[in-house]
Design a protein that fits this description.
single chain; alpha/beta; 21 helices; 557 residues; four-stranded parallel sheet
């Protein structure tokens, strides 16, 4: 057995494997191909979303890179769904669930077919961590390629502009013609959503983790640089196979700390907490929500990127992407430079010759003058979230909020009330039974948060939930409340009018109800019946772990 064919030799070598070779010949294999390392190329191409509509072409470029470097590339597909399309509907419950389906499907194909290495190409929120979870589980040489960011729409718009236009129309600020104009021009073509939303956040985190080539996270989807990234990834994975450098050699605890640091500096999505926890779990790396708090105390927010900032990812791409930012963080002692990466070099070696940003750029602030001196991702605990919750507080909303609870049992009910003007200033909107088990599926609350912003209530109300948020959400929002309501967490017994305080400075979320009353309410509480009794969502609800553990589905107590 060749050291470069540790897995494929078991599938195609020897007379007894003639049937397998016969099948592969029909797909285009030649005699020579059976002696080459086989590299699976997991494509998340799909025409259900602009984020992934171009990835079939990127997979072809990657295959060219593999074949040109002496390997045999084999392209296969996995699913993707669109958060942007499904948000606010029952279908959104499948979004987080799809992360597990993607991870499992890539593992299944790669293991079954005996690929010696893997290149996974993702371009949307859940298929990116799904790809990395599969890579970590398989632990055979692998590289991740990001599909790339979309270009801005007319008048500097993007998908969040459309969501917020709905709220602006409900308030009476714009008419239906204006909504349609934004709808028609905000998404100009292929690529992932254009701000530092979840896709760009996760791409940046994966590059900082060392699992994609330098620069992969900061390229436009339709560009020569992205095509070159794919070709180089195809070549690079063969070097990993040659050196038997595997993902768990790269995905160490220090590498995850690097990823967290970069996410914070970029002002990234709260979903990074959920996904990095899940990726670390799959890689057998100890990581907890408390690590986000620890790292967040020393890492500032430096990027003035949407949703809370002014600029889009394409504008960061134009000034050099995240590599100069990482060089600054490394020089400041905030990154572990000795971490191995998929280049076969350390992070510090990759960054050694990286030039700084242009002197006149305004997107990335200097360390001495940050947007926020510590993390915007605040892990809150208290009597309302004993096991923790995740807040996204940039400081622009203030650092604390106290208000009266207005309780809803679903995202749809909350959205209708917001759009109808039934949510008053000073309210804490409570959306429960939307957690991993209760939803099931832990939907993003993008429609309600966008409606809040669109109605001009961003400074005047807070929103808390056991669900989660889109990377495009902003305002005073707290998600991932655990234990979730479906599991009998205190969120389940909050009543209209209860006082709630969210304090980012003290990292605390408090229900202003005495312990005796909370205990009495919990003693009377009964879990609602499961919303699904058959199918994928029912299976997911039975096995999913808490959001504070990454909402993984293979946790063994």
């Amino acid at each position: 057995m060749s050291k470069n064919r540790r897995y494929s030799s078991e599938v195609v070598d020897g007379v007894q494997k003639a049937p397998a070779r016969a099948m592969l010949r029909a797909t285009g294999f030649t005699d020579a191909d059976f002696h080459k390392p086989q590299i699976g190329i997991a494509s998340t191409w799909s025409m259900v979303t602009p984020c992934n509509m171009h990835i079939n072409k990127l997979a072809d470029y990657t295959c060219q890179g593999v074949d040109g470097a002496g390997g045999k590339g084999v392209i296969f597909n996995t699913i993707t769904i669109s958060d942007g399309i499904a948000n606010g509907t029952e279908g959104m419950k499948y979004s987080l669930v799809s992360r597990e389906v993607i991870a499992d499907s890539i593992e299944a194909v790669t293991s079954c077919e005996g690929f010696d290495g893997l290149v996974a190409i993702g371009g949307c929120d859940k298929n990116m961590p799904g790809c990395l979870m599969a890579i970590a589980q398989l632990n055979r040489p692998a590289i991740f390629v990001y599909g790339g960011t979309i270009q801005p729409g007319s008048n500097h718009t993007d998908i969040i502009s459309v969501f917020e236009a709905v709220g602006q129309h409900a308030r009476g600020d714009i008419d239906l013609i204006q909504v349609k104009q934004i709808e028609e021009t905000a998404i100009p073509g292929a690529g992932s959503c254009g701000g530092m939303y979840t896709a760009n956040t996760m791409a940046s985190a994966i590059e900082a983790l060392g699992m994609s080539l330098p620069g992969s996270s900061s390229q436009e989807a339709v560009s020569g640089s992205k095509q070159e990234d794919c070709l180089r990834a195809g070549e690079a994975v063969l070097k990993l196979v040659e050196g038997n450098i595997c993902p768990r050699d790269i995905m160490t605890r220090e590498a995850f700390e690097n990823a967290i640091t970069v996410v914070i500096a970029l002002g990234g999505s709260t979903n990074a907490v959920l996904h990095l926890l899940a990726m670390a779990h799959t890689a057998d790396v100890e990581l907890s929500i408390d690590d986000f708090s620890r790292i967040g105390k020393r890492v500032p927010v430096l990027a003035d990127l949407r949703p809370s900032g002014r600029y889009m990812m394409s504008e960061l791409v134009a000034i050099g992407g995240i590599q100069p930012l990482m060089k600054r963080l490394l020089d400041a002692g905030l990154l572990h430079g000795d971490c191995l990466t998929v280049t076969g070099k350390t992070l510090a070696e990759n960054l050694a010759d990286v030039a700084d940003y242009p002197a006149d750029q305004q997107i990335i602030k200097p360390l001495a003058n940050p947007i926020k001196e510590d993390s915007h991702l605040v892990i809150l605990k208290g009597n309302l979230a004993p096991d923790g919750a995740v807040a996204k507080i940039t400081g622009k909303e203030g650092l604390s909020f106290t208000g009266k609870a207005k309780v809803f049992h679903s995202e749809e009910d909350a959205l209708q009330a917001i759009l109808a003007g039934e949510v008053d200033k000073g309210s804490v909107i409570v959306i429960r039974y939307e957690g991993p088990k209760g939803g099931p599926g832990m939907r993003e609350m993008l429609s309600p948060t966008s409606a809040v912003m669109g109605r001009g209530l961003g400074q005047d109300v807070a929103l808390i939930t056991d669900g989660r948020f889109s990377g495009g959400s902003h305002g005073f929002v707290v998600g991932h409340i655990t234990p979730e309501a479906m599991n009998g967490g205190p969120l389940a017994i909050v009543e209209d009018g209860d006082g709630i305080t969210i304090d980012a400075r003290e990292a605390c979320i408090t229900l202003h109800v005495d312990e005796q009353t909370i205990a009495e309410r919990l003693s009377r509480w009964q879990a609602p019946p499961p919303r699904y009794r058959r199918g994928l969502l029912a299976k997911y609800a039975r096995v999913v772990a808490s959001a504070s553990e990454g909402a993984v589905t293979d946790k063994i107590d």
